[in-house]
Each structure stands twice: as C-alpha cells, then as structure tokens.
C-alpha cells in the first residue's frame, strides 16, 4: 500500500505515524508543496494525507500552490474516492475545497487541550477504541467555521465546535495533532508564526509549561495515534 502525503513545512511531517508506517511496511510519497514539488498522478496511491502548516487556506496570493492543492483534494474526494486524512491545515483545506468555510479561531488554541467525541464520533470507524474525551496537542488560530455539506462532526471542544469531521464514507480530518512526538513542541516553537501564536496565547514563558504538559500526555498521544492508524488501515483494505 502507498500513501501520498502533502506537506507544507518540513517539520510538519506525519510524526508518530512514520514509525507505524514502517512497522506495517507501507510506502509513502511526500510532496513538499511549499518547496515547489509537483503533485503527481494520484490514482496509483491508496490514500491521501494532508498535513499542517503555518499558512492559512486563503493565503493563495502568497502561496499560489494552495489553489492546485485544493483542486487535487477535491478531485481525490469526488472522483478517486479512496481514504483521506487531513490534520490541522489539512482539516481546514478539506472544508475549503468542498465549499465549507474557515475563519479565525478566537481565542487561538495552543497547548494541550481536551476534545470530546460526539455521538457520531463515538460510532465512527476511525475513532473506534478511543475514549470519549482525550487530551490532544493544539496549535491553530483558524478553525472550520462551517463544515461541507453532508459532513458529520466527530469531535468538538469548548472553543472549537468542529474539531474533527468525516465527509462521505472515506474522508476524515481533525484540527488537533494526533501525530505529535516528543520533539514536536520544541521543533514547532522555532517557526516564527507558531512561536508568535504560542507567546500570544500562553505568554512569553509558556513554552516550558507547554513542553511539560506534552511530555506528561505522550503515552496518551501514542495510544491515540496507534489506534487511529490501525483504524485507518482497515479503511484502506
């Protein structure tokens, strides 16, 4: 099996999922859109993953490749119909590509936050085996304001009603970062846009507390990523 991965920043890769892919012998092809990589012929791939990034879905003037990416996502969902997973920006791009809407997240969600599965989420194949409430890593100032037509809302939080969704039978996305690893907070804090959001939300000295909370939740993060990956693989078979 082969997974096509759209990346928008070198350090926003599949994270914890990389080891799981290797364990299962799954090949993946990474397209670094921010570095000018072309989108390949997509039909030969078994799944499409779209990762996060510091840009916003409407930043097409600064990042014109977003136009082609949204077109590719739309083609994948509407015509190829194989499994899709979007994380953070990928969650927002799925909504935008399918005529949903995105807008500012106020206040921004940066840090370890709690999300709750909806009734639909509790019965969804991707979240099978996970608790109703989970601690997750968040780092976003934009949210999906209106889900695409026909989408099921799978998870929500106090400040973000659409934390996860499914569109149709085979496209999932979530605002939070289930791919988080031990070095995720430290690595992302070096990105100017992310660092600015961290300081604005958690204060100038907030990084240490954020890292400590992430470390304390790492076992929970690993369980979540492993469960979601196993569930996703079932959808590829």
List descriptors:
about 240 residues, alpha/beta, Rossmann fold, 9-stranded mixed β-sheet, 8 helices, 9 strands, about 35% helix, about 25% strand, globular
- Going by CATH, the architecture would be 3-Layer(aba) Sandwich
The average pLDDT score comes to 97
Structural classification: alpha/beta
Share in helix = 25-40%
Distance between the termini: 9 Å
According to CATH, what is the topology? Rossmann fold
- Oligomeric organization of the protein chains: single chain
Please give the count of helices: 8
Count of the separate structural domains: 1
Uncertain residue ranges: none
CATH superfamily grouping: Class I glutamine amidotransferase (GATase) domain
Shape assignment: globular
So what's the CATH class? Alpha Beta
- Order of strands across the biggest sheet? 2-1-3-4-9-8-7-5-6
Q: What order do the helices and strands follow? A: EHEEHEHEHEEEEHHHH
Biggest beta-sheet profile: 9 strands, mixed
Overview of this protein structure:
This protein is of the alpha/beta class. The chain has a single domain, classed as Class I glutamine amidotransferase (GATase) domain (Rossmann fold). 35% of the residues lie in helices and 27% in strands. It is built from eight helices and nine strands. Strands 2-1-3-4-9-8-7-5-6 form a nine-stranded mixed sheet. The protein is globular. 44% of the residues are buried. The model has no long low-confidence stretch (mean pLDDT 97).
């Amino acid at each position: 099996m082969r997974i096509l991965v759209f990346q928008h920043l070198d350090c926003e890769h599949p994270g914890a999922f990389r080891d799981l892919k290797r364990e299962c012998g799954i090949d993946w092809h990474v397209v670094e859109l921010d570095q000018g990589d072309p989108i390949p012929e997509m039909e030969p791939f078994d799944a499409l993953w779209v990762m996060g990034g510091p840009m916003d879905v409407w930043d097409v003037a600064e990042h014109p490749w977003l136009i082609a990416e949204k077109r590719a996502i739309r083609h994948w969902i509407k015509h190829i119909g194989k499994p899709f997973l979007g994380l953070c920006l990928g969650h927002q791009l799925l909504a935008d590509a399918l005529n949903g809407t995105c807008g500012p997240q106020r206040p921004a969600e940066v840090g370890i936050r709690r999300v709750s599965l909806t009734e639909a989420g509790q019965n969804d194949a991707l979240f099978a085996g996970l608790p109703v409430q989970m601690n997750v890593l968040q780092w976003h100032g934009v949210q999906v304001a209106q889900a695409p037509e026909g989408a099921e809302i799978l998870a929500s939080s106090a400040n973000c009603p659409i934390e996860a969704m499914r569109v149709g039978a085979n496209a999932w996305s979530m605002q939070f970062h289930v791919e988080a690893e031990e070095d995720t907070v430290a690595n992302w804090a070096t990105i100017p846009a992310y660092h600015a959001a961290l300081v604005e939300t958690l204060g100038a000295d907030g990084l240490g507390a954020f890292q400590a909370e992430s470390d304390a939740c790492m076992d929970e993060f690993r369980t979540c990523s492993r469960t979601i990956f196993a569930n996703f693989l079932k959808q590829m078979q």
